[in-house]
Write the structure tokens for this entry.
Amino acid sequence: MKQSITTKNAPAAIGPYSQAIKTGNFVFLSGQLGINPETGALVPGLVTEQTEQVFKNIRAVLAEENLTLDKVVKTTVFLSDMLDFAAMNEVYANHFQEPYPARSAVAVKTLPKNALVEIEVIAVTD
């Protein structure tokens, strides 16, 4: 059985998908962009500012299930330019503690709204 998770404290889905889905002891978050949920626009700045907003959005979705970042077991980072990896990684490192989640990071041609970074996560509820 799957349950949709939605919050107004993170950007609304811009297509036919859920902000997150809970099934069993897992919560799968759709990729989050650096969009300010109040304005619906990307936050101004570089990949560092967008990555900070991504984590605000991830936290907001996780909070709907009373979860925090320490329950994240896997992340996937999508970058529009791999040259932004070091800057993104510096921000990313500030949001997790050991043991760090497993992670993949890939460069993609473009992201929705021409974002610089998108991050999706999988969390556990146990």
